[in-house]
Amino acid sequence: MPLLEASSLETYYGPVVALRGVSIQVEQGAIVAVLGANGAGKSTLLKTISGAMDPQTGTVRLKGDEIQGLNTWDIARRGMIHVPEGREVFSHLTVRENLMMGAYTRRDRDAVAGDIEMVYGYFPRLREREKQHAGKLSGGEQQMVAISRALMARPDVILLDEPSLGLSPLLTKGIFDIVRRLNTERGVTIVLVEQNARLALEIATYGYVLELGRVVLEGSAESLRGNRDVQEFYLGQREAGVRGERRWKRKKQWR
Question: Model-level pTM?
Fold first, then answer.
């Protein structure tokens, strides 16, 4: 049984259909990449899975239990944490206070203190910044805070949306190295939305490609890296761009 399963999801923004019957499965211990052009529905998929948006139809199951329609905090207590695009740290709280917010549902004080040391081990810079307000940190440091805050909840699954957004290539590589370590060392299952398809497929075990709210391709990360269409539209550059998106849509065999 998959740890996380979304089946036939349809989600709307008013009259606009954002997801059109999307289904994905995430096995325990996997890193699953979700790829696609801007507007393909990637972030909407994570919001729907995490409870930030309700699907009009379809189901989401975590550990076999249906969770669609639950509040986001109920879903977080069940072991799934969403790290949204743009990081969204608590800017007027210190780094340490942000981390403590991630552990707000926990009552094991000693273990919480140990987990703070754990995240400082992954992100030593946060120890140096722990008394600074998160809003004054660099973009890369804020991303470290966002991921660390998620870890403080001891999740089974992290939904990670565009962790490289606005970061330099060097910082992006560092963040991805940590994501890989969290998966291998801590056993955290990760669903990764990322436009840097090359890096995403380097650390992922499986992947889905979305186009206009539909899954148009899926497979192992290795098979996607070898797919000619993925190579042409995603692996040659960070973003296909408008011209690339138009050419992508003319690929009739993908529909």
Answer: 0.88
Question: H/E element holding 7?
Answer: strand 4-13
Is 29 strand, coil or helix?
coil
> In whole angstroms, what is the distance from residue 214 CA to residue 24 CA?
11
Instruction: Please tell me whether residue 155 adopts helix, strand or coil conformation.
Output: coil
Write phi, then psi, for 176 (nearest 5 degrees): -65, -35
CA angle, 29 then 222 then 179, to 5° = 40
H helix or E strand, kind and range, residue 244: helix 241-249
Domains of the chain by residue range: 4-79+157-254, 86-154
| Beta-bridge partner residues of 12 | 17
CA distances from 15 to 10, 12, 20, 210, 215 (A): 12, 6, 13, 20, 21
pLDDT, tens digit only, all 255 positions of the chain: 899 999 999 999 999 999 999 999 999 999 999 999 889 999 999 999 999 999 999 999 999 999 999 999 999 999 999 999 887 899 999 999 999 999 988 888 889 999 999 999 999 999 999 999 999 999 999 999 999 999 999 999 999 999 988 888 888 898 999 999 999 999 999 999 998 899 999 999 999 999 999 999 999 999 999 998 898 888 764 444 444 444 545 454 444
Burial of 169 (0-12, 13-18, 19+ CB in 10 A): exposed
Which fold would CATH assign to domain 4-79+157-254? Rossmann fold (3.40.50)
